[in-house]
Amino acid sequence: MAPLTNKVAIGTSCLGQNEAHTLDLKIRAAAAQGFSGLEIVYSDLDRYSTTQNLPISTGAKQIRQLCDDLGLEILSLAPFENFEGTKSPIQDRLAVASAWLDIARILGATYLQVPAQYGDNCTGDEAVIVSEMQQLADLASSVSPVISIAYEPMSWSHFYPTWEDALRLTMLVDRPNFGLCLDTFHVLTRLWASPLEASGVYPDGPAKLADSLRRSVTDIPMDKLFYVQLSDAEKFDPPFSKSHPWYVEGEAPEFTWSKHARPYPLETELGGYTPVLEVLQAWLVKKGFDGWVSMEIFDRRMRDEMYKPGVAAARGRKSWEKLQAALTGATARI
């Protein structure tokens, strides 16, 4: 088959997680490895602006100019977390959202990326959630340019942890600028990969994943799939437990997993073991999704100051080439 035509972005969290890994260094590293776009993590932008003694709006202008100079598009501002259903005044939350949307417009971002609610102080009342998401989407479309809301079901989200749940919400919200961001990690750690099984796989995981992917090809409207995020997961050996050094009381194991052990796809040498290719075969090949794909990984190794953004970016580029080679039968340039 022909090579995939998807444009490839990378999240700034994937390019270093030490304060020495400044946002401008990360952006230059992404450009040097041929990425087409970026997901700007708000905390990276805030740290850059603070270090430069700039208002965040001015920092955003500088970052957009740098991206323009390097030929990089800004895909999203991320992650706008725990908005819907939180038990605080909606007007206060919309005021915060308005400030984020202002920054997204300065950046020239297409999307505000919104992970599905996982906080403790929240309601599962769907009527409330739908209304609040409609208000968010309307706020995002009230000023030009329109910002689209990319809603991401996460494997530990309280009410919308699967693409089916998130798609139902999307249809209820019923706004043209409200759709899905689907992440391979969350699909796989919800259905297939288990941190608690010695095998690393739920006993019924392969069957559940196959069924979910088969339905996703036909059931997700193309205009509601905004973009796809890519990452792998390291197998826990031995299985995760309360004695593990990463254990946090009350924290979902999948959340702990996500923070520490999400390498780039197909990095088997770093413990990656999930069937990312099966997911992408369904979404990019069978479904024919030709929009943005974005690397979103969280690798504890990158917390070291000595782990340079250039090395991280090169890993991301190699990962995409390996994925494309496997999906198309081409020979990777590595």
From TrEMBL:
It comes from the Eukaryota. Signal peptide: none annotated. Gene3D superfamilies: Divalent-metal-dependent TIM barrel enzymes. Residues 27-312 form the Xylose isomerase-like TIM barrel domain. PANTHER family: DIOXYGENASE, PUTATIVE (AFU_ORTHOLOGUE AFUA_6G00240)-RELATED, HYDROXYPYRUVATE ISOMERASE. This is Xylose isomerase-like TIM barrel domain-containing protein. The lineage of its organism: Eukaryota, Fungi, Dikarya, Ascomycota, Pezizomycotina.
